[in-house]
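Our working data are protein records whose layout never changes between entries. Instead of coordinates, the fold is spelled out as a row of discrete tokens. Here is such a record, shown just as it appears in the course material:
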Amino acid sequence: MGTCFGVQDAIDMALEPEFRDRLTVVGQLVHNPQTMERLRANGVRIVERDQIDTIETEAVMITAHGASDTTKKDLTKRGFTVYDATCPLVIRLHKLARFLERQGYFPVIIGEASHVEVRGVVGNLTRSAVVNDEGDLSGLVGQTRIGIVSQTTNRLEKVQRIVTAIRALPGVEDVRFIDTICEPVKERQRAIQDLLAQDIDLGVVIGGSNSANTRKLMELIRDKGIEAHHIEGASDLDPHWFQGKNHVGITAGTSTPQDVIESVHAAVRSLGETASS
């Protein structure tokens, strides 16, 4: 558990002493409220992508989730010094999507169309489609050569299911799939399986409310019929969740700081001691 290397690198870059009070991050650097508060406390300003006109600092930073080349060029043209904190694995996703397009494939991104990472990838392609479930496959009618990549935080089994469905579409002659789910996310998903093997009867998943990979970890637990709750910190814990429960499993998304995980762990243990006394 704890922050993955891509997220940690972005945080460390933004907290460099040279940036204090002179850096604006365009979007949420990471999807975690405690980290965002820490950045603000260190003088980092944060604006959404539709608020670029309000930026007052010379230095701006692209978030760990990346952005399209168009967005980066626009910021440069406006006279900003642009620092890119995009996770290397997201950069790989961008490169592979463009590679598939150059090879003559119609690019398909499996993921959430509204997610900042996916919007950045789509922004670098001439044409593409975003597929989040089988209900979106109608948008691929008429395509014969399809190249597939995935949002880095997806569930592997979901991606494999959709790839299989795309291969079975009428008229599709050639499908090339490149797995772009990041390894830290896969590690979290494998860890969930280990957790489930321990016969837990309650799951607590820690991460920002807008963290895609955290939501997917909670889904993995609930899919097994086990009660699970997505929280941002210890203050979100509800003692009623733990009544009648014997074995609580705790996990966290790739943007969740270690100190937040430890505080939740301590609070859950305290609840257990109170219940048993």
About this structure: The chain has three domains: 5-86, 89-177, 183-276. The mean pLDDT is 93. Residues 106 and 112 are 18 Å apart (CA to CA).
